[in-house]
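Standup notes
- HV: blocked on the assembly model, inputs below
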Amino acid sequence: GQQVMQIPQYQHVQEGEDFTTYCNSSTTLSNIQWYKQRPGGHPVFLIQLVKSGEVKKQKRLTFQFGEAKKNSSLHITATQTTDVGTYFCAGNSGYSTLTFGKGTMLLVSP
Amino acid sequence: KAGVTQTPRYLIKTRGQQVTLSCSPISGHRSVSWYQQTPGQGLQFLFEYFSETQRNKGNFPGRFSGRQFSNSRSEMNVSTLELGDSALYLCASSLSGQGRIVDTEAFFGQGTRLTVV
């Protein structure tokens, strides 16, 4: 079945440093979604990418979808303590259930 | 509109007991998925229900089961609880879970934190 792998599993940065998490699928995806889970909270939808090579920005967050639609990345510029949490990617291929990666836990030290 | 509601929020059970968790999806959503979340293991997919039918199932033992009612509300049951079942159980609803991209965005509930002692 479809598998979505996410790396790194964990990253600790100093406030102001950049952060990137990568997501790779075993199959071509029709779309990829990103979610953020704050400590003690539940995953919340951030964004969805659909087109090959698509790049979307949300303030300091940049999301990319690979040309082959099998990988994606989330990059945060100049991290802040409010960015702390676990970031999940999730994809599906056509008529299949959304498959989540295991997530990247981001810790930001002031 | 109201979000996804999970009850109870917290639960403490003894090994060997069984437990039932409930999830009320967003009105109009017909797909409900369940996940187990433990530290370091991310979101482990349990199963997905759509129109009262189990559409997909993850790799969990048969002690884990679920069902969906005609109003799309879902329950999951864990029988013969083990210490390793202690986790946050999340449910997520979506319009249909498949097909049109707009139908797949998942809305999560706050989760039920189950502790098995």
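- HV (later): unblocked. DSSP finds no helices and eleven strands in chain A. Chain A has a mean pLDDT of 94.
- Next: hand off to the docking folks.
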